[in-house]
């Protein structure tokens, strides 16, 4: 049975950050912990967020701030933030940053209110049902346009044993998403491109999934149209607020759609990202996308629903574009954006392949790919992505 569920209050416009105070009042937050990272704070983006709240029961100047979010959030960082949460008697969370800060805040929402290690709550280990309504309420304020974690029920965290695991529950869905494209203006071009490719990957991969969810398919295609058409402009002209708004919409829509399921792109990215945490998730997705599109392209569900043609149309490619050419178009876009187009450029060695494959086979995204991948299939995708 398909479960179709959209719950978050979303504010999507330039200046949306001014609604944070009113959202605190609506949700009932009086002492939230702010979760961010050092880069967002140093760039002055956090100050911009805290500057102009209206109708708020909260004085933002008095709120505790955890700014130790790493590029790939870890269970260690979760513990550090939980200690601050408890020290100040916090009653909720405001995440200000990219997907890492928002996912870290979701980890804190679990760990601050539930006992035991995070692995007790990991989806692939059967722990999703252990996450209860006690989870701390969260307001998400994205400063990148990529992960869409502000409207997603899941988080990806590196646990203490080094695995990169997913945590999924409707109790983790942010109570409010404040999507203000003005907050992405200071994002460097490379990160604009990498996070934007993350959004495009979400739209492409969730559309390819064979699960039945017509609203998710429609949202994914519109997100793809906006993201594909605007990512280069947003990367090269950071002050173009309309391009930034379209990228933020694409990010949000990709995550709204991927409740349908993702696939081998994310299985591989999660696997390799856990082994090499310095690698950017969006960049990994961009590198793996062409091989996975080729792998999925001839699957019966793709032919039955004419999915390659519908994706090509959203990407403004020629009618009748075959899977290989669509895959090549994704690779060419990454090259134009200045992103790596192969794993070798990122320092990945073939010696890691066996570990990557084992982790990908056990990733929560593996089973929702339209065509189930075998170990040899994953090896071929890795070879093609080098």
Distance between the termini: 38 Å
Radius of gyration: 20 Å
Helical coverage, percent range: 40-55%
From the 3D coordinates, which CATH architecture of the largest domain would you assign?
Up-down Bundle
Helix tally equals: 15
Total number of domains: 2
Strand arrangement in the largest pleated sheet: 1-8-5-4-2-3
Largest sheet: 6 strands, parallel
Question: Which percent band covers the strand fraction?
Answer: 5-15%
Backbone structural class: alpha/beta
What topology emerges from the helices and strands here?
Layout: E1 9-12, H1 20-27, E2 32-35, H2 38-42, H3 45-50, E3 65-66, H4 75-87, E4 92-97, H5 99-111, E5 138-142, E6 154-158, E7 164-168, E8 176-179, H6 189-208, H7 214-236, H8 241-257, H9 264-275, H10 281-296, H11 300-304, H12 307-314, H13 323-336, H14 353-361, H15 375-385
Helix pairs in contact: 4-5, 6-7, 6-8, 6-10, 7-8, 7-12, 9-10, 9-14, 10-13, 10-15, 14-15
Cofactor: Fe cation
Protein name: 4-hydroxybutyrate dehydrogenase
Family: Belongs to the iron-containing alcohol dehydrogenase family.
């Amino acid at each position: 049975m398909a479960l179709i569920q959209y719950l978050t209050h979303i504010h999507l416009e330039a200046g949306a950050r001014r609604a944070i105070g009113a959202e605190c009042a609506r949700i009932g937050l009086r002492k939230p912990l702010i979760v961010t990272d050092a880069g967002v704070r140093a760039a002055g983006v956090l100050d911009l967020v805290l500057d102009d709240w209206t109708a708020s029961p909260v004085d933002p100047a008095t709120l505790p701030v955890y700014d130790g979010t790493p590029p790939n959030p870890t269970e260690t960082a979760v513990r550090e933030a939980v200690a601050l949460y408890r020290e100040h008697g916090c009653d909720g969370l405001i995440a200000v940053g990219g997907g890492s800060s928002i996912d870290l805040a979701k980890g804190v929402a679990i760990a601050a209110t539930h006992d035991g290690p995070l692995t007790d709550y990991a989806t692939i280990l059967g722990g999703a049902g252990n996450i209860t309504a006690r989870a701390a309420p969260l307001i998400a304020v994205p400063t990148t346009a990529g992960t869409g974690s502000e409207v997603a029920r899941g988080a990806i965290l590196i646990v203490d044993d080094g695995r990169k695991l997913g945590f999924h529950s409707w109790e983790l869905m942010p109570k409010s998403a404040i999507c203000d494209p003005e907050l992405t203006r200071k994002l460097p071009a490379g990160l604009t491109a990498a996070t934007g490719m993350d959004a495009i990957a979400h739209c492409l991969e969730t559309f390819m999934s064979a699960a039945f969810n017509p609203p998710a398919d429609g949202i994914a295609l519109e997100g793809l149209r906006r993201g594909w058409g605007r990512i280069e402009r947003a990367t090269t002209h950071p002050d173009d607020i309309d391009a930034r708004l379209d990228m933020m919409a694409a990010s949000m829509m990709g995550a709204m759609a991927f409740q349908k399921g993702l696939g081998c792109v994310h299985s591989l990215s999660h696997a390799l990202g856990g082994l090499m945490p310095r690698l950017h998730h969006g960049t990994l997705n961009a590198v793996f996308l062409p091989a996975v599109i080729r792998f999925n392209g001839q699957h019966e569900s793709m032919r039955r629903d004419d999915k390659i043609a519908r994706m090509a149309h959203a990407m403004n490619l020629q009618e009748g574009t075959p899977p290989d050419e669509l895959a090549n178009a994704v690779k060419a876009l990454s090259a134009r954006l200045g992103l790596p187009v192969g794993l070798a450029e990122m320092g990945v060695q073939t010696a890691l392949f066996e570990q990557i494959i084992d982790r990908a086979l056990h990733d929560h995204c593996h089973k929702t790919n339209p065509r189930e991948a075998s170990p040899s299939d994953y090896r071929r995708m890795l070879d093609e992505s080098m």
